[in-house]
Amino acid sequence: MKKINALLFNQGGKCFYCNAVLDISEASIDHVIPRAKGGTDDVYNLVVCCKYANHAFADYSPKHKMTVIKQLCCFSSGCQKIFPREEEIIKPPTENAQVAELEKQVQSTKTQLAELETKMQSSKTQSDISLAYRLLCQAVKSLEDSGEEATNSTVKKKMLALNPLFNETDYGFKQFNKFLLQALHEEIVTLRHHKTNGNYIVSCVKG
After folding, report:
1. How far apart are CA 23 and CA 191, in angstroms?
2. Mind listing the pLDDT tens digit for each residue in 67-122?
3. What is the pTM of this model?
4. Beta strand pairing status for 189-193 and 46-50?
5. Contact 44/68 with Cβ under 8 angstroms?
6. Rg (CA), the chain
7. Fewer beta carbons under 10 A from the terminal one: N or C of the chain?
């Protein structure tokens, strides 16, 4: 206690680092060159600072300490306003917390990738279905040009004749009629019921 009183008196009752008035109850002896780095207990290597600064500095070199002081201190506030008390210091995350945070980031990345894949698939489907609509209108026109009736059954046969790889299920439709109804919804074709059976008469919208 005598040593800390003497050092504090020599420093004018102020913290060596931030120059704030320092109460003896908040004072702590700091090794300018940490003992872990070869510093001694000689008086020329000892200064008094607040315990919060001493705790924050740990085994910092003098140069590192001054860098921290320049970044954190305004040289007018007390040390307790500059350096957090021990219970206020943010502790590094535990291993479990780090794992949980990593898992959270991985899950977030998976979600983003899934959303991107969905968007890409949707874009691909939209692009592909436009080709299917073009094939649909080609089939209808071919039937009309040959004087045949363009019903849903004859249209599909003609589409397969023009492109044997066509399959409405590739575009998410379980039935060909569902495909035609979607084309109707997007104003690609018009549909009207056949007079004698349950088929549709298909006509392409001009445009």
Report:
1. 92
2. 766 665 544 344 544 444 444 444 445 556 667 777 788 788 788 777 776 665 55
3. 0.41
4. unpaired
5. no
6. 40
7. C
